[in-house]
Design goal:
Two copies of one chain form a homodimer. By secondary structure, chain A is of the alpha+beta class. Chain A is built from three helices and five strands, in the order αβββαββα. At the A-B interface, α2 and β4 of A face α2 and β4 of B. β4 of chain A pairs antiparallel with β4 of chain B.
């Protein structure tokens, strides 16, 4: 696995991390708030992880979803763990808007239109704070 | 929500269900074993569900992943909750093969090649049994 880019580097600007996983911003100017949640060790599939680790990772994925919803009020959130190109477990958390380049298609195909001229902005600090807030609500919540 | 197709019908042949969610086979001849895990009530996002329900749904998603891995030995599994077209919570569980029509791209874009002439087959009964087996290992496991 010498060539795995998610073993060799963070895979983006880290906005939150613990000992097991990290959340990075994706450099996708047309998709503000697009984050990836990356498991730190080299694992291919969710079912390669023990259940407790799966739960830990999904808690983060849903905290990031809650964070981008609170910050960006997207029309939809897309969650995906694909890993066909980089088979190192990572989740895409993608806030979608009805006027984004691919809606209602997934973002990986051909664009249907130009990006809106007035995209929302979100800072790394705001993402960090909203993730911390979502985690604290999750851990303190009735859920 | 009168027009929601996942409220009005099962959305495919049901291979497993309980009171909260169901697993259906997707009619995609080129992707044997492709299943969807559908939350029964009309909810848009994972973070609209209470944590216990999220865990319940993800336990099913991972049981289906384990089932298709055991039955089909795919090169990769893709998991995705998009809902841009049908905003009723459902997960795609897609066994991928290096020689499938879109690999390493997601299955939603243009095909890169013709489907293999020798695709594996999997019956609904085999899917059902493998899901039951995966759930029983999960609930009895050390996790």
């Amino acid at each position: 696995m010498a060539a795995c880019e998610l073993c060799q580097g963070p895979g983006g600007e880290v906005v939150w991390q613990d000992a097991l996983c990290r959340v990075v911003r994706v450099e996708a100017a047309d998709y503000p708030g697009f984050c990836r949640v990356i498991w730190n060790s080299h694992v291919g599939e969710m079912t390669d992880l023990p259940s407790a680790d799966r739960r830990h990772l999904m808690t983060l994925v849903f905290a990031v979803e809650a964070a981008v919803r609170s910050l960006l009020r997207p029309d939809k959130v897309n969650l995906a763990s694909l890993g066909n190109m980089v088979p190192h477990l990572h989740w895409h958390v993608i806030p979608r808007r009805r006027d984004d380049r691919h809606f209602p298609q997934p973002i990986w195909g051909e664009a249907l239109r130009a990006a809106s001229a007035a995209l929302p902005e979100v800072s790394s600090q705001a993402l960090h704070d909203a993730i911390v807030q979502a985690l604290s609500e999750e851990h303190g919540g009735a859920g």
